[in-house]
Amino acid sequence: MRKFLPALAIFFLVTALLPQPTFAAELKEKTRQAFAHYTQVAEARMQSEIAAASKENKPFLWVDTLESSRKQAILERLKNGEVVTEKLEENEQGANIEVPSALVHHWIASVFIPGGNVASTLAVLQDYNHHKDFYKPQVADSRLISRNGNDFKVYLRFYQKKVIAVTMNTEHAAHYETITGGSPRAFSNSHTTRVAEVENAGTKDEREKPVGHDNGFLWALNSYFRMEEKDGGVYVQCEAISLTRDIPTGLGWMFKPYITEVPRESLYTTLNQTRVGLLQATAKK
Q1: Number of folded domains in the chain?
Q2: 140 to each of 92, 130, 156, 167, 172, how far by Cα in Å?
Q3: Which of 12, 118, 119, 252 could bridge across to 256 with cysteines, CB 3.0–4.6 Å?
Q4: Which of these, 269, 229, 174, lies nearest to 60 by C-alpha position?
Q5: What is the pLDDT of residue 254?
Q6: Is the pTM of this model over 0.85?
Q7: Whole-angstrom distance, CA of residue 66 vs CA of residue 59
Q8: Could you tell me the residue range of the domain that residue 217 belongs to?
């Protein structure tokens, strides 16, 4: 056994010094098109819901569409300061929408901010230059690229560590609208226009990998906010749809925690930090 230990130590030392393998993935055109179709179906459903809420007095928020007892249980959790998340899956005419060679992550999250309002929520969401402060460490850097009325182009640098650390440079196009009549309400949609994985982030050797030819930790991210004032505060919900590579055979231990857990955790963190920021702003008034 004593002779074996030095040999084992040498083996691990040599292994550590060898060039590390890459697990490259390619965002194929058929995958891109299938994801675009998935989001088109989802957005058509969302637009229908928003139109019905504004014209037919139908529910605007996800929680208000639930069966009565479940709705009350979730409302109690929200009033107690929880962020409630749920996994969704869009379908077309009752059938699943296949996205080949990738995984689609579709989640919705809701939060309630007592004393908050739509105006203050929009102020936080649209203050992109300070997202790096509101949403750190998940957002490592942020800036507004341009604004034209209710249309924004923004840069966000994402950082996540889940078994492995990943940094992404992303650009987004976001649009906001308010709904007149009834309780104050607003909604927004945001789509990534560029996603680049960063190698050796924070070092002199930092560089971006070719877009769509990387490790596939994030290829696209769409987010859809809704907010409504009532019950002495503001309800904020966000529906997020993201695209990643599928899980490589034999490497589930490395990729699965990041790919399957990060989408939900990121959404949870975003809603929770929005709540904290709005509560702090309300307390200062």
Answers
A1: 1
A2: 37, 10, 8, 9, 15
A3: 252
A4: 229
A5: 63
A6: yes
A7: 10
A8: 23-284
